[in-house]
Each structure stands twice: as structure tokens, then as C-alpha cells.
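From the pipeline queue, job 12 of 40. The input is one protein chain; the requested action is below.

Action: predict structure.
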Amino acid sequence: MRIPRRCTQILILGALSALWAGAGRGAEQAPDAKRLYQDFEALNTPENLATRFIGGQPPDFVKQQTQLLHAIGARPSEDAIPILLRMATEHLERIEEMGAAKFRRSPLQAIQVPLVDALAAHALSDDICAALARIAKSPLVKEYARGRALDILVERQLNRIADPDDPKGEKRAKLLLDSLIGTLTLPEVLHAPGRLRALARRVPAIPKAEAAAPWRALAAAAESPAQRYAADAAIAIACVQKESAGTPLTLGEKDLLVEAANRWLKDFRPAAAKEKYPSDLLEECILRLGARLDHEPLAKPLRDAGLIPPAHK
């Protein structure tokens, strides 16, 4: 007998309520990963999977699946890893069978980031990293989820490089750009903000004799316009975060921002203008810093271009 969709969701909600109620009584009493997986799959009814989704808030069943994935990720590795590997494989098989046209309207888009996050909880496993690599390579994985997967993988690779083997950071800078940007074109990078944020987050792993040293190593490793844009965006993102935290920027960091702003005005801004809905993080950060920092070499070219307000006299 087929259980109606509403009844299925009530049963799953009941299971979730029991899960959270039991959380305080110890992990040993919580549902195991297999049971949580069964509850997850019970929500993948034909009716639910046929729900049209083109962005915004995910459907209720995806929100429930997100909670279940979080619970699976929180299980001990010996319990969680086999189930997560199965879920990653089944997700990729499902979307590949669906095809690109149907996937663009599928609610399965909304479960990719929670799936990657659950896998990330066990990223010390070689098998989990292999699954993340398969996710990152799939053309049907949404860019934000792909960026998250690449970020996790590159963190593991960075941890394998010791300071004595890379005293100036050239190896790590090249690894970051090759792993997160690779052969992407500039238009593609303008639609990959997750990769740029990951790059900004990972650059501090590069050794630094002074604050600007890792960013100079990253800039020197850039081998294409896309990688050059990514390196500039990463330093700008990091400087915005530093300035927002109330930490003064060093003169070296400001000099890098001036160089990045000039390249953006000359090369990257015209390229971004040709794109439909670009995520030009370099523009956002440069304009913010140009308006907020008391640094005339950065502000003047932006002001001359009419992009920030005139200086107060």
C-alpha cells in the first residue's frame, strides 16, 4: 500500500523529533546512520522529486533531509562513512540519470551543499575525499557545492606541505590556484564566488614574513587572467574582513589593493560588464575599501571614475 505524501512527512518529522529529543541522552541512543538514511530516502518520493525548484527557499522535504544529513554527519566515522559514501554515489547517479535540463528545475539542487557538509565532517577519510572529488568533477553539481568540496580537498592537500619544504609559500600558492581556479576562464570565475572566498580563507596557510607576503606569493603564482583576478579578489576579500574587524591594514596590503584596483578598472571591470549577473567580488570589495580607507592612492582612481563619492573637504 502506498503511503500518502503527507503521512510520510509526518512519520519523518516524528523521527526527527525523536532524534533531537534523544540528543541529550547520549550518542549511543540516537538513531544510527542506516536508520537516518532510510528516513532520508523515504522523502525521495516521486511526488517530492517532481517539485519544481528554481531557487529561493528549498521545499519542506529538503529541509527535513538537511536535518537528517546533519545528524548522519554527526555520527561516529565507522557508522557514518559507509552511509555517506552510498548517499554521494546515489545522488550523482540520480542527477546524471535526470540530465541537465530536468536538473535545472529539480529540488535535488538544494541538497548538494548539505551533502558536501556532511561528507566534510569525515574528511580525514581517503574514501570520503574521493567522493568529494567525484562531486567536484560532476558537471551537474551546482557551483557553490563544488566550491565547498574543492575547499575541503585543498585544505587537506595544504596540510601535507611542511614549512621547511616550502619556505616562501610558492608551492602552496600554486596548489591553491591550481586546485580552486585551475583552467577556468575569467567569465567562469566571475560566476564562482564560493571559490574566491575559499581562496581568501586558505591563503593564510602560506608562510609569512610580513602580512602581505602570502598575497604576493599568490599573485606571483597566477598564470592566467582568471587566476590573476582570483588572486586580487582574495586579497580584497581578506582586507574587507580585516577592516571590518577593526584591524588596521599594513602598507604592504594597501599597496596590493592599489595594484588590484588598477587592474580591475583597466581589465576586469570591462570583462565583468559583458557578463549576465556576474558575482564581481573584487568590485564589491575594492569599492568598499576605497570609500572607507583613508588611502588616497586607492581612492583617487575610483573617485575619478565616478565610482565612490567625492572626498570631504
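Job complete. DSSP finds 17 helices and no strands in the chain.
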